[in-house]
Amino acid sequence: MAQSEFELIRRYFTGLGASRDDVATGVGDDAALLVPTPGCQLAVTTDTLAGGVHFPMDAPAESIGHKALAVNLSDLAAMGAEPAWVTLALTLPEADESWLVAFASGFGALALESGVAVVGGDLCRGPLSATVQAMGQVPAGQALHRGGAAPGDAVFVSGTLGDATLGLRIWQSADSTRGADEWQMLERLHRPSPRLLLGRRLRGCASAAIDVSDGLIADLGHLLEASGAGARLEVDRLPLSDAGLRLAGSEAMRDMALAGGDDYELCFTVPPQRLETMARIAGLAGVSLTRVGVVEREPGLRLVHDDGTTLPAARAGYRHFGA
Q1: Reported confidence tier of residue 320, pLDDT bands at 50, 70, 90
Q2: Which residues are within 8 A (CB) of 113 and not within 5 positions of it... i.e. 6 or more apart?
Q3: What phi, psi does 295 have (nearest 5°)?
Q4: What percent of the chain stands above pLDDT 90?
Q5: Could you give the CA distance from residue 45 to residue 134 in angstroms, rounded to a whole number?
Q6: Which helix (H) or strand (E) holds 115?
Q7: Quick one: pLDDT at residue 323?
Q8: What Rg do the C-alpha atoms of the chain give, in angstroms?
Q9: Are 216 and 261 in contact (CB under 8 A)?
């Protein structure tokens, strides 16, 4: 017997995620009632993940649920915010209950791990997509922004870059032979890890920050534009995974790191006088941090090898309505 969207919401999404005392009214009413912490600012972000655009149509439902939340939490991480509440609007071509069980499992597990409560949303029929609004809190005046980088600031990135792009190529490949390296790349594609702890620790240290979703060239470019500055990016220092290098080689991995996207790592800048503090943060961040360049006064992004030769910064990252 077919179930209504209200029955499906009650069954799969009511009570999902963490239980929080600051939720006065959650799922089940016309709107959620939330109780923000005094002295904090509210950080709000929204992302839509569309099937066939942001994830393969045949991706596991559990991983789609994880990723739908993770990409929004990554935006909060880039602001230095502590995640608190999310809403989920899910559009499905049909009410496949086994798919819903898996999706809710992936979404709920990350919500619980991140201390996030699901407080509302919607469920309707249509092309497969998931829209998440994530809300977090940050002490007033301490949020990280894209603007704020100044000449002389060091440019850092977290984790490794390019793995998710390689993972997509592996997923789409006709070759079904997959070893440990291939599965590691697929994990980076399907289950990105939002750098929430790092984002919070960067408060008061980083001068600017952004998450890397559309490729390092594109996203660092956004940060530099907002800051009214340029940068020198040392391409031979890009953090590339051993598994990626074994599978694709250094040149291909470098290109994927620069323009591939879907990494959901943090790119941030640190003034010279705070580099000692940065060294302490690196030991507490729970993820590797790599210094890859320096902010310069001249606008634009210059890609430079260790031997001084340059690499054209022609690729601008993913654009939904680009050529």
Answers
A1: very low
A2: none
A3: -75, 140
A4: 75
A5: 5
A6: none
A7: 45
A8: 20
A9: no
Q: Residues 286-300: pLDDT tens digits?
A: 899 999 999 999 999
d(CA 16, CA 106): 11
Q: Which residue has the tokens 């704020």?
A: 148
* pLDDT tens digit sequence for 57-108: 899 999 999 999 999 999 999 999 999 999 999 999 988 889 999 999 999 9
C-alpha–C-alpha distance, residues 27 and 120, integer Å: 5
Is the pTM of the predicted complex or chain greater than 0.85? yes
DSSP-derived secondary structure letter, 29: B
Region label for 16, one of left (φ > 0), alpha (ψ between -120 and 50) or beta (otherwise): beta
- The secondary structure element, H or E, covering residue 172 is helix 163-172
Give the end-to-end CA distance of the chain in Å, rounded to a whole number: 46
Judged by DSSP in three states, 296 sits in: strand
Identity of the residue numbered 67 = K
